[in-house]
Design goal:
two-stranded antiparallel ribbon, single chain, two-stranded antiparallel sheet, globular, mainly alpha, 70% helix
Length: 477
């Protein structure tokens, strides 16, 4: 009887855990591959469900009801997160939540100001929905468990996302238009363009590097989710993920994704150096003293490489340096669109022109004659945000990003006076950096496939007050 009762209790706990964590994962996977589900009719009922959701979101009345529900749930999750993190509201988490709610509130006011009888573009729905999913994941990570359990859950989510993107690197369904660059096919995977595919491959690459380094630093000890028996298996899987996503990143020929991955690698190195190079360590002053000369050397090498290889026939290198080509109309159109977007923000700085209006306004009043259409203004999400809902919302979003990415990622042990790098947080933040940079060049903040991992990784990469306090007492690996 006792054994049966224990077994029943364990089964109930497993079923409850599978329901609590399986539902958000299912939603995340559906949103990540939303481009494929919405166009591939042969997948059956998932395609028809996606079509019905899109149809419902195009209705004006449905949009208003969905926004009310999303706003209510967002406020509830922010309140729950504050309770789980033991934050008084005055720390980093409290300031981030205030900025996030201010950003969302400004977007909702812009929607209400231009509320017509017909439906508005679904940008605000995508934005609010992905923010809510990120907050939901944050609450699930911090509920019912201390700092050790939070880190384990973060590792599992980041690890599954890494392996998922690695598997998607070689999945190329024929549901979309084929792209190419100088007779070389551009990989686009299960998404509608190579830029989205490249950004997601960059996310997988940075996650694989960060989690692989964490696995290596664990030294096969029985800590975290890497057991002694699974040490080499985990290291092998992350190495395969790095190779697969790295190849996909190169084959996408997406310059925005390449720049995002490079800056994310620099961010990861900076965070590690910032955390480990303390004044009390022997290498700290020397590494800080050599940082500026190293940056100068790297800049000089980049300039020399650009000057020597700008006319090379090697496809990948030529693509990397094509931004400096005077005949690159893609870059010229984007620069003109950025200039027009800044003029639009200057013309209506506080509240913007409303959701979905910047493209039409740019085409009518700000588009130069040499630019063929106004679609280029939508390639920069930051300019699009400022011209749609004003610089106030753009400032809240920028400050939220700064607070989310500027924290030190470390674990302190009071007993041994050891400061360690929390690779799980750094990997998640580096993945978010890839997308944040890509939003400047290629857009994606209003696409489900890229906005979903962006907000989830931002929430996974943050630190809570309760986690920091617990980490000082017991070491986390």
């Amino acid at each position: 009887m006792i054994a049966t009762s224990i077994e029943s209790t364990e089964m109930n706990a497993f079923s409850k855990g599978a329901l609590i964590f399986g539902l958000p994962f299912t939603v995340m996977l559906s949103l990540l591959f939303s481009d494929y589900l919405s166009l591939a009719e042969h997948v059956g009922w998932p395609h028809y469900i996606a079509e019905e959701i899109v149809a419902v979101c195009r209705s004006a009345e449905s949009q208003r009801l969905i926004l009310v529900a999303l706003s209510t749930y967002l406020i509830a999750f922010v309140y729950l997160e504050r309770g789980f993190s033991k934050d008084s509201g005055r720390g980093h988490q409290g300031r981030r939540n205030v900025l996030l709610l201010g950003f969302c509130g400004t977007g909702l006011m812009a929607y209400a100001k231009n509320l017509p009888v017909i439906a508005q573009p679904a940008q605000v729905l995508v934005l609010m929905g992905c923010i809510l999913l990120g907050k939901c994941m944050s609450v699930l990570m911090s509920c019912r468990g201390g700092a050790i359990e939070t880190v384990r859950r973060r590792l599992w989510v980041a690890g599954l996302l890494t392996l998922l993107l690695a598997g998607a690197a070689f999945w190329h369904p024929n549901a979309f238009h084929a792209y190419g660059y100088r007779d070389a096919p551009r990989w686009h995977g299960a998404w509608d363009n190579p830029n989205t595919y490249g950004l997601l491959m960059g996310v997988g690459l940075l996650l694989g590097i960060g989690l692989g380094l964490r696995t290596t630093m664990s030294n096969s000890r029985r800590r975290g989710f890497v057991k002694a028996r699974g040490y080499w298996l985990a290291l092998f899987l992350f190495l395969v993920a790095v190779c697969a996503t790295g190849l996909g990143l190169i084959k996408s020929y997406s310059r925005g994704a390449w720049v995002g991955a490079a800056l994310a690698l620099a961010y990861m190195a900076f965070q590690v150096a910032r955390t480990t190079c303390l004044p009390t360590t022997a290498n700290g002053p020397r590494m800080r003293r050599n940082a500026v000369p190293l940056g100068i050397v790297l800049s000089a090498m980049s300039i020399i490489a650009f000057w020597n290889w700008r006319h090379t026939e090697q496809t990948t290198v030529r693509r990397a340096f094509s931004a400096g080509n005077a005949n690159d109309f893609s870059c010229r159109n984007r620069l003109a669109a950025w200039e027009g977007g800044l003029q639009m923000m200057a013309a209506n700085p506080w509240f913007g022109f409303g959701w979905g209006e910047p493209e039409g306004v740019y085409t009518r009043f700000y588009r130069p004659s040499r630019v063929p259409d106004g679609a280029a203004v939508q390639m920069n999400d930051y300019v699009l945000l400022g011209s749609s809902i004003g610089i106030t919302a753009l400032g809240c979003f920028a400050m939220y990003l700064w607070l989310a990415l500027a924290q030190k990622s470390k674990i302190e042990n009071q007993e041994s006076r050891i400061t360690e790098v929390d690779w799980s947080k750094i990997a998640c933040r580096a993945g978010a950096v890839v997308l944040a940079v890509g939003f400047w060049f290629d857009g994606g903040l209003f696409k489900l496939a890229t906005a979903t991992p962006f907000w989830i990784l931002l929430e996974l990469g943050k630190g809570t007050q309760g986690e920091a306090q617990n980490a000082q007492v017991k070491r986390i690996d």
